[in-house]
Write a structure and sequence with these properties.
Blueprint lengths: L1 H11 L6 E2 L8 E8 L5 E9 L2 E8 H14 L1 E2 L1 H7 L1 H6 L2 H14 L1 E3 L6 E3 L1
Antiparallel strand pairs: 1-2, 2-3, 3-4, 5-7, 6-7
């Protein structure tokens, strides 16, 4: 199942999904590239704009795949799930929660339930 999840993600990002709207307001996060990090993990890199520039962030594919797998099993993806399953993504910033959630919305039928609710199957 994890291979199917990874394949679906790679087939759609960035070809059909390049922007990840913020949860509140502001410019969306922008896909940058697929590449390997210093630990030789394949990551989806994206840009965050704010303040005086753009900042590059990452989501390792293995963390993204685990988040999607949890969502498909439970029907929810919360900030607690994010903290547990996505330590590298979280280290780069809490914005990773929004990016993963927007991927869940676009590819896996999730719906954002507000600050305390996270993402749930629609």
């Amino acid at each position: 199942m994890r291979e199917e999840i990874e394949k679906k993600i790679k087939e759609n990002i960035p070809y059909k999904l390049r922007e990840f709207p913020k949860l509140e307001s502001g410019e969306p996060y922008q896909f940058y590239k697929w590449d390997y990090d210093n630990s030789n993990r394949l990551c989806m890199y994206y840009y965050v704009t704010g303040g005086k520039g753009r900042y590059q962030k990452r989501v390792p594919i293995n963390e993204l795949t685990e988040a999607v797998h949890r969502f498909l099993q439970t029907g929810v993806f919360t900030r607690e799930d994010f903290r547990e399953l996505c330590p590298t993504t979280r280290k780069d910033g809490e914005c990773g929660f929004a990016v993963i959630g927007r991927i869940l919305e676009f590819l896996f039928g999730a719906e954002y339930q507000g600050r305390g609710g996270g993402f749930r199957k629609s």
